[in-house]
Amino acid sequence: MKPATLLLTAAVVVLNVLGNFALSWGMKHAPASAGPILSLLQPFVILGIVMLIAWTLLRIKLLGLADLSFVLPVTAVGYVLSAVMGAVFLHEHVSLQRWSGTLLIFAGAALTGLTPAETNGKPKP
User: Fold this and answer.
1) Phi and psi of 8, rounded to 5°?
2) Most exposed among 42, 45, 87, 97, judged by the fewest C-beta atoms under 10 Å?
């Protein structure tokens, strides 16, 4: 796989994790009196929305460069990182069952990343 594709994959994962984190942080710290519409004007909420828009656009670009069967499992590492960010920085309780699911996602992503891509049933060089 080309280095540019790997870099784009990393950017997609990071933007997803940081965008969701910023959105969650902003919503948790918005004044209760703000309501759902005014909460959208909180700086971290706006930052999260902008990051998730960038994530969507870069993911579209990535899907044009790499196989769907590679992109979806590898970018699923973002779920693992989101759980870690939520537990560490947002002090969210992540149950043993959720950590187990997170580890399964990580294992699946690792296996997918190690599998060579194929074209018409033949491995790519």
Assistant:
1) -65, -40
2) 97
pLDDT in tens, 6-51: 999 999 999 999 999 999 999 999 888 888 888 889 999 999 999 9
Give the other-Cβ count within 10 Å of 21's Cβ. 20
pTM, 2 dp: 0.83
* DSSP symbols for the chain: --HHHHHHHHHHHHHHHHHHHHHHHHHHHS-GGGHHHHHTTSHHHHHHHHHHHHHHHHHHHHHHHS-HHHHHHHHTHHHHHHHHHHHHHS-----HHHHHHHHHHHHHHHHHHHSPPEETTEE--
DSSP string, 52-77: HHHHHHHHHHHHHHS-HHHHHHHHTH
